Every structure is written in C-alpha cells, then in structure tokens.
Give the backbone structure.
Amino acid sequence: MRAVTPESVNPVEIRKKAGERITIRWADGHESVYPARGLRGRCPCAQCVSETTGQRLVHEEHVDPGVQIVAARIVGNYALHFDWSDGHTTGIYSFDYLRRICPCRDCARAA
C-alpha cells in the first residue's frame, strides 16, 4: 500500500452502484470499494459509536444484509453523508476516515 498523505485522502472520483456499494478513486490512484453493509456497519455517528467511551455500538453483523445506500452526498470538501434503506441518516464519513477503513486486501494488511 502507498503511504497515505493528506493529499491522498482527496477523492478524484466517487461512484455509487445501485445502492450496493460506493467506489472511490483517490488522488494517489488507489481505488476503494465499500460494500453497503460494511460501510453501514462502520458508521461513525454517535448512535453507532458511544460518545463517552468511543466503543462501537453497531457492527456489520448488526446490519441487515440487504441494506442499501439510498443517497450519498458530499459534505463540504471533507466527507460523504449517506441515507440508508434502514432509515439511518446521521453518519458523516470524512474522507480521511473512509481512506483509513478501506476494505481492500492491501489496506487490510497494512492496518
């Protein structure tokens, strides 16, 4: 995996595939593919992660396997916001966070 620099956490392309997944191509050429269920299970909001302890309250196994991305919107120049088919709408996923949770094999090995 290439070293992650501040410049490399800038997406140059974001594609949504029929609610099933989001694909991000980063400035350094790396491509991340996020399946909907995995992304929903990593939501960083206060409903999914305890504000006091930082402990994750919602994990992928808690999420309906058929969950879909209903809508994805860019927030400023730093994040994505998702509306989910299960009604959840409070998570804001910073580009830095998305890059850190890239599920590809190379990134998983580097973690």
